[in-house]
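Workshop exercise sheet. Pairs work together: one partner reads the sequence aloud, the other fills in the structure field after running the prediction. Swap roles for the next sheet.
Pair: D.N. / O.F.
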Amino acid sequence: MGKTLSNGSATFTLKYRAVCDEGDFVGGWKNELEALADARNHQSGEKSHAVSLEMKQTQTMMFSLDQFDQ
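Structure field:
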């Protein structure tokens, strides 16, 4: 689920979901290709409608509280 990048002290996770602009469909948080598939497969009952991809970025950092004791 999503794409994770890490450099040892920080981790970034990117997740995507398809959201129908008519408001009747919100997909789960997935990787980009799975979210695109959700958008493509969504059946709104209309021949033409807009489905957006939302992206969420989460950042986790590891640090020592000792570095703040100065």
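Discussion prompt: The CA atoms of residues 20 and 67 lie 46 Å apart. What would you look at next?
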